[in-house]
Amino acid sequence: MQKTLAQLTSDAKAVLRGNRTDKFTKPTSNLYPHQWSWDSCFISIGYSHYDQQWAQKEMLHLFNAQWKNGMIPHIVFDDRGYEEKYFPGPAFWEIERSTNAPDHVKTSGICQPPVHATAVRAILENATDPAKAREFAQTVYPALAAWHDYLYRERDIGSDGLVYIRHPWESGQDNSPAWDPVLREIDPESVDIPAYQRRDLSHVDASERPDDIDYDRYIYLVDLFRTAGYSEAAIREAGCPFLVEDVLFNTILCQANRDLAAIADEIDEDPSRWTALAEKTSDALNRKLWSEKHKLYMNYDTVAGQPISERILAGFLPLYAGIPGPDRADTLFTYLNTTCFCRLADDCLAVPTYDRSSPDYSSSKYWRGPIWINLNWMLCLGLSRYGFDDYAGRIMKSIIWLPMNSGFREYFDPDTGKGYGTDRFSWTAALLLDVLYSADENVKNFFSPQM
Ligand code: GLC
User: Fold this and answer.
1) Measuring CA to CA, which residue among 365, 346, 345 is closest to residue 406?
2) Rounded Cα–Cα distance for residues 366 and 383 (Å)
3) If pLDDT is split at 50, 70 and 90, which confidence band does 208 have?
4) Nearest to 344 by CA among 407, 418, 408
5) Is the CB–ligand 1 distance for residue 39 below 6 Å?
């Protein structure tokens, strides 16, 4: 018998509770046993609807690991037995080579998409104790400001409003086909790669994870960063082959600037800097990353000086931050609607991470095709922002239908809805909760009238 929405809600909360330590919530217990940056933002958005205290605690634990230059690291390591659980761990990152690294906690030396201000705004908006939420926002505002300042100061080489990422892991979409042409420039046969042993394959089948050759390249880049002491200038001078202006990262930053402006307003700070930066990044995305030929936003390889012409779901996501004008939004929607939506069940639609007509498309391999809940959640918000409410509602139904039928998996097959990767994955549960708390009767009644 199908679960009711009330059961699903309680199961989703149990997933988050089960992945929680006394300090933060892990993405999942086995494969990812530490705190991940953008995961915790999604997790906090989920908590914000029913557990304000944990939502705040989750973010505070992340901000506590902020680097002295403002970077929020992509992993904050749990200091209870980390080495044997996960690779690359603190001994490999060697962040002590940087004077900017925190002294009191171990972290990685890269970052992830800046969803943080968006999570803090959700906490303010959904608070059961608004005074406490306001106090919390006042406490974390300097950390958020330093984080956004870091990105524009250190990562926007042309000062044009677009920041670069320097590792596929910084995009959050680790082995997306968008990285293939850039990574091909690193030939593992002709560069030095330190000896290492993968740990991910002991938890998940190799067919669902990145290939060894790509893993060699990921490790090569980490080695380059630590040798450069994690200084951006030294990393660029060392000829880092991966410096990409990523559509998704910049879109999320644009929305986070809008959210930071709203937070500033709420706590009587000046929002104008963040509003101006949101516009600057939005203009740059429209000017530099829009491809008239492909009718999609495309990542830009700053080393090769050319766009990366791979059609990935992220190419539609500027809708999420209100970046395209109305005509461009219509163009994007027409393209989405004619070729990209997958029908999972009656009225349930979702979009795979990669163009299904591409020869490299895979329905089961990580970021090379499968459906991920976080990107579909952003697409859903983007579609409703432009008034495509019917389609936003159908994506919401998929975000409910997938965990209901396949469990709280990491990602899902676009044709069958089958779940892959790890189980009891936190952001699948957290963003499902966000949808369940925000959905209208039309969406809820599709499954069952009670919640
Ligand atoms: C994988 C995902 C990344 C996520 C991490 C922890 O590396 O690609 O987006 O943050 O797992 O869940």
Assistant:
1) 345
2) 24
3) confident
4) 418
5) yes
Number of other CB atoms surrounding residue 407 within 10 Å: 15
Q: What are phi and psi of 55, to 5 degrees?
A: -60, -45
Q: Is the dihedral of CA 328, 331, 332, 333 positive or negative?
A: positive
pLDDT band at 206 (very low <50, low <70, confident <90, very high): confident
Indicate the length of the chain as a whole number. 451
pLDDT in tens, 251-273: 999 999 999 999 999 999 999 99
Q: Find the mean pLDDT for residues 4-29.
A: 96
* Residue whose C-alpha is closest to residue 288's, from 274, 279, 280, 300: 300
Q: What is the pTM of this model?
A: 0.97
Q: Closest ligand 1 atom, CA of 175?
A: 8
Place of tokens 């042309």: 158
Question: Considering Cα of 165, then 89, then 36, then 23, what sign does the dihedral take?
Answer: negative
Residue nearest to atom 9 of ligand 1 (CA): 172
Q: Identity (one letter) of the amino acid at 144?
A: L
Structure tokens belonging to residue 206: 């190799």
**274 Cα–ligand 1 center, Å:** 28
Task: State the distance from the centre of ligand 1 to the C-alpha of 167, rounded, in angstroms.
Answer: 13
Q: Which two three-digit tokens encode residue 196? A: 């290492």
